[in-house]
Amino acid sequence: MQQDPFVPPASAFTRSVPIRFSHCDPAGIVYFPHYFNMFNGLIEDWYTEELGYNYAEIIMGSQYGFPFVHIECDFKIPSRMGDVIDLTLLVERLGRSSLGVAVVCHRDGVERLRARMVTAMMSIATRQPVPLPQPLREAIEAYRQRTTPYKSAPAERSI
Amino acid sequence: MQQDPFVPPASAFTRSVPIRFSHCDPAGIVYFPHYFNMFNGLIEDWYTEELGYNYAEIIMGSQYGFPFVHIECDFKIPSRMGDVIDLTLLVERLGRSSLGVAVVCHRDGVERLRARMVTAMMSIATRQPVPLPQPLREAIEAYRQRTTPYKSAPAERSI
Amino acid sequence: MQQDPFVPPASAFTRSVPIRFSHCDPAGIVYFPHYFNMFNGLIEDWYTEELGYNYAEIIMGSQYGFPFVHIECDFKIPSRMGDVIDLTLLVERLGRSSLGVAVVCHRDGVERLRARMVTAMMSIATRQPVPLPQPLREAIEAYRQRTTPYKSAPAERSI
Amino acid sequence: MQQDPFVPPASAFTRSVPIRFSHCDPAGIVYFPHYFNMFNGLIEDWYTEELGYNYAEIIMGSQYGFPFVHIECDFKIPSRMGDVIDLTLLVERLGRSSLGVAVVCHRDGVERLRARMVTAMMSIATRQPVPLPQPLREAIEAYRQRTTPYKSAPAERSI
Fold first, then answer.
1. Tens digits of per-residue pLDDT, C65-120?
2. Which secondary structure element, helix H or strand E, spans residue D89, and what is its range?
3. What is the arithmetic mean of pLDDT over A70-82?
4. Most CB atoms within 10 A, among A77, A127, B27, C20?
5. Is the pTM of this model over 0.80?
């Protein structure tokens, strides 16, 4: 079993999730689709609590959606009922409509799984991508910069 | 729409749950099976945090289960993404192996839905009911008494 | 464990569901909220295949919803991965907006669990109950009559 | 929106799945974790119906598990309630303990999403990978060959 160390950047958005009976399968470990529910919840809370954008209001009020266009996930160490896992969100790239984040699931300094997830902002009415609003983009970019532990190339890409 | 007031007893076990995107259906309200996940989580936390019994340890360590034998639920007021609901657990009856609880979902003093759920303690190995251990029974009975706002008949029944 | 015999009426709507890994919990049996998903799917298929009303079209096209207002369920015999269970829908009552059905889960002539579920037809826009359309009501009533094995009192009630 | 054509190889394992109310989110499209449930179900059915290995028996009887170690998914065209989608399983690689499959979700000759999923066969007791049994490996390899539309390099890799 791999033992990849992970220490989240100081100001990174991290939330703890208790592993419950309802998450676990007949082998006693988390049934993997539940992780994606947890990750989606983390992204919601990050919008609302870290970026200052009420996620429910964006979806239900303004009628935008953030469907996923790409997901990758490496499962390294399984989690069991009674474990408490930490989920940290990092911004990987920021496009015109798209946002790529990494969600790292870790505990006690060891990475348990890592997902890379790309969403695109869409109008629910037209079903077309829309550009991320400038203030939202700036809030995301500021988060990216304060959580990037090393000097990096600009994250802007055209999508 | 009914507006039933609900104020939980002072020492009742209550936890708040944010309604997330993942809970909601195409009509924008909580898809009802998700409530049962939330109720199961509440019961877990009540065992662990209120009664002092680690629920995960009882299941995974001692190999007991608490399958539901009966559920009833009245849905009164729907909840939407972005709502935060409060869940309160009340003990309704205590049998030899069985435990009947009410879970009341409420917000701002108004009841949104109420479930009555009966579990039976089982051995996972033998698939037979087992008596609730005496110290657990006493902890449950003490909780019942301190959260019952009125004089009541004894809760013991034989099952 | 109870062994209640169940033989569905000859023309009752029955569908089989395989119990999958994803349905099962650490004790190796179906985690109960999954049953409600299965029951909801049965109701969908009953509308579409038995009554001739496309359920998706009623919801997404006509913008009606069928939220549950009451659910009761008795769990008698657990099901395990690899089991195939049969689900039979019976109409119990028909109100102005409301429909009460029983879903019986059975296998090899033995009842495993039985749910009684009451829905109300609602307008998604106004969030108010609407009367069941007359042709739909007649289709439901005809189904009720052809699947009721005994002479019964009229099912109409005002709600 | 991309329109990638997809025609499954003649003898590929394909199952249809109706998109239900329970799959859909407030935007009216499938909430993405549900796809992974569908894919897991497809893999189960493929073992049982195509390869002749009872999946439930391998898990519950022989106490092996097939946890995912890697997942990638590209979401191209969303699906809505009432759609019926086709899921086709293709084998991409076969390691000592690991199996890489592609699940292609398509409809009317157009690809809607594609996942690449790698599992490893594990002993539930020891939590260690075990080699795929030789007859199972041969059945998988035979499936791979009869569903590969072009001459390909050997799929064996060491993992």
1. 999 999 999 999 999 999 999 999 999 999 999 999 999 999 999 999 999 999 99
2. strand D84-94
3. 97
4. B27
5. yes
pLDDT for A149 beyond 90: no
Residues β-bridged to residue C118 = C70, C100
pLDDT (tens digit per residue) in B66-97: 999 999 999 999 999 999 999 999 999 999 99
Whose CA is closest to B92, among B21, B32, B43, B29?
A: B43
Q: C150: which 2 tokens?
A: 């005994």
The Cβ-side half-sphere exposure at C122, using a 13 Å CA radius, reads 18
**Nearest residue in C to B123, CA atom:** C27
Identity of residue A140: I
d(CA D15, CA D12): 10
Q: For residue range B110-124, list pLDDT tens digits in order.
A: 999 999 999 999 999
The C-alpha atoms of residue B109 and residue C61 are separated, in whole angstroms, by 36
How close, in Å, is residue B84 to chain D by CA atoms? 17
What's at A30, amino acid-wise? V
**Dist CA A47 CA B20 (whole Å):** 13
CB D48 within 8 A of CB D15: no
Q: Express each pLDDT in C124-150 by its tens digit.
A: 999 999 999 999 999 999 999 999 876
Q: Which residues of C touch D (CB under 8 A)?
A: 19-22, 28, 37, 40-41, 44, 54-57, 59-60, 80-82
Provide ipTM, 2 decimals.
0.91
pLDDT tens, position by position, D60-118 = 889 999 999 999 999 999 999 999 999 999 999 999 999 999 999 999 999 999 999 99
Taking contacts as CB-CB distances below 8 angstroms, the residues of chain A near B80 are 56, 60
Nearest to C41 by CA among D23, D41, A34: D23
Among D21, D23, D25, most B C-beta atoms within 10 A, so best to mutate, is: D25
Which chains does chain C touch, 3 or more C-beta pairs < 8 A?
A, B, D
Residue whose token pair is 């989580």: B41
Q: What Cα–Cα distance (Å) separates residue A37 from each residue in A23, A44, B42, B56?
A: 10, 11, 18, 21
Length of chain B: 159
Among candidates C41, C57, C82 on the partner chain, residue whose Cβ is nearest the Cβ of D54: C82
Query: What is the band of A116 on the pLDDT scale with cuts at 50, 70, 90?
Result: very high
Alpha carbon distance B32, C134 (integer Å): 27
Question: Is D77:D112 a contact under the CB 8 Å cutoff?
Answer: yes
Nearest CA in chain B to C31: B67
For C13, D12, D92, D102, D105, the CA distances from D88, given in Å and listed in that order, are 29, 7, 13, 8, 7
